[in-house]
Amino acid sequence: MTGAICGLIGVYIVLRNMSYIGHGLSHSVFGGAVVSYVMNWNFYLGAGLWGFMSALLINAVAKRKKIGADAVIGIVTTASFAVGVVLISRVRRFTRNFEAALFGNILGVTTEDLVVIAGVSVLSALVIFVLYKQLLFTTFDPEVAKVYGVPSEWVETAFALVLAATIVVSMQVLGVMLMVAAIVIPAATARLLTHSFHRLVFASVGIGVLCGVGGMYFSFHTNAASGATIVLFASAVFAAALAYDSIRRAVVRPVPASVVPAVGHEHSHQHGDILHQHEHPSLRDTEHSHHPTAESPNAAPGVAAVPEGNGTRHVRVIVDGMTCSYCVRAVERAIGRLEGVTAVRVDLPSRTADVSLEGPAATPERIRQAIRLAGYRAVEGA
């Protein structure tokens, strides 16, 4: 159960480049665990509330822009961890073994712990399911999500609560020091194997379960620490996936652009009041020819060319199908790789691309082809 829930949460952690906050919150939760024991509070309630408040504090301070998010994470989480260490050194009458909280102890897991882990797993999966589209939107395009009315702050708050709860219930099994590996490795491994977000989620959960079960069996037969063995097993799975991805890249060679099959990128957008996700069909935008051809320099549909006396031409293209900043970057990359393109600026609201060209190799026809290969099209009316 711990492997499954860590794998599920890890997808959003990895895609948001938040691995550091997962590591930091695990340290912060340790401080909350010690405080809850000293104050005679419920362990899960005290540690979870402490971790949740730490996540909210990090988000609040990081929004001021004067201090980077990584610095804020380092300050808040290490301070929380230090609180726990100081209390342990001052209050020398602990009956609870906090070494297990640091490094994990599978033998210390009780029936109550299993019930709590199961409850948090179900609750976290339910939150992810209900907020699936909103989380997806804020993960890939947080700026545009706010424009379309997604309550990003509430979504971030709910995710912080789920993350804190996951860390608290997993402490006994994996330990604070190894927690981030259990969250990050399954999702990172799945990311090497698929480009589809749906498959990424299920693959990460499956790999998390595999690593949990496999690591426990190795831990039993080698008489080694359970948390560390689970992490080492997960690292071995990641190494195998990395080797497979490297071999696949070496074996599968690029094919001509004319026969490249359609692939897609996934993102969310809104029609009216309905927010949904879809796959945007695209072709590889890395297979452009960079050599001059005898293509006609006449403007293609959707392309308007304005010549200048110094040999530089300015072309404006209306691009159909752009819905987010990902699309903008894809079109900019596709056009910018063409030989003879000296500048390109893509504007999402007006759906236009302004391109500066020099030399005979850069033609409007090539621009249209590059846009098509990126998965979009130049439309009439430029």
Can you describe what's shown?
This protein is of the alpha+beta class. The strands form two sheets. Strands 3, 4, 5, 6 and 7 form a five-stranded antiparallel β-sheet that branches. It has a two-stranded antiparallel sheet with strand order 1-2. It has two domains: 2-250, ABC transporter involved in vitamin B12 uptake, BtuC; 284-378, Alpha-Beta Plaits (2-Layer Sandwich), CATH 3.30.70.100. It has helices spanning 2-15, 19-38, 43-62, 69-90, 98-103, 111-130, 132-140, 142-147, 152-174, 176-193, 197-222, 226-251, 325-336, 364-373, and strands spanning 263-271, 274-282, 303-307, 312-320, 341-347, 352-358, 377-378. Helix 1 runs parallel beside helix 6 (111-130) and helix 2 (19-38) crosses helix 3. It is built from 14 helices and seven strands. Helices cover 61% and strands 13% of the residues.
In short:
With 382 residues, this protein is an alpha+beta fold. The chain is 61% helix and 13% strand. A hairpin with a 2-residue loop joins strand 1 and strand 2.
